[in-house]
Amino acid sequence: MNPSNSYSLIRLDKLLKRINLNPKYKQLIIQESQKQYSTWNSIKKLARELEFRNSILELKQSIQFKERELKHNEIEKRKTKKDLRLKKLDQTFKDEEMMSRFNKEINP
Predict the structure, then answer these.
(1) Domain boundaries defined on the chain
(2) Which residue intervals of 1-108 are DSSP H helices?
(3) How far, in Å, CA of 11 to CA of 30, rounded?
């Protein structure tokens, strides 16, 4: 395909706008279109393949992000549980101190 004529450039531009790709993959499509032996079918096929790869990568990234978020939430829950246990333990010690003082005052 010869991208020098305006019709081909317009079609290529529409194709690049229609598909959701990162700049690296768009550059691959542009390079493919600049080859003399490329056809619209080969360019569209490449675009679909790259779009599929891109969607897989985005899916993996979103799964990794969710896993990190879950781990972070889990750690936060553990911290809050630990803090609650420490507060209860502190309160228990304070109560025991108060009871021992009270008992010493009553029974000298």
Answers:
(1) 6-106
(2) 6-18, 23-33, 40-106
(3) 12
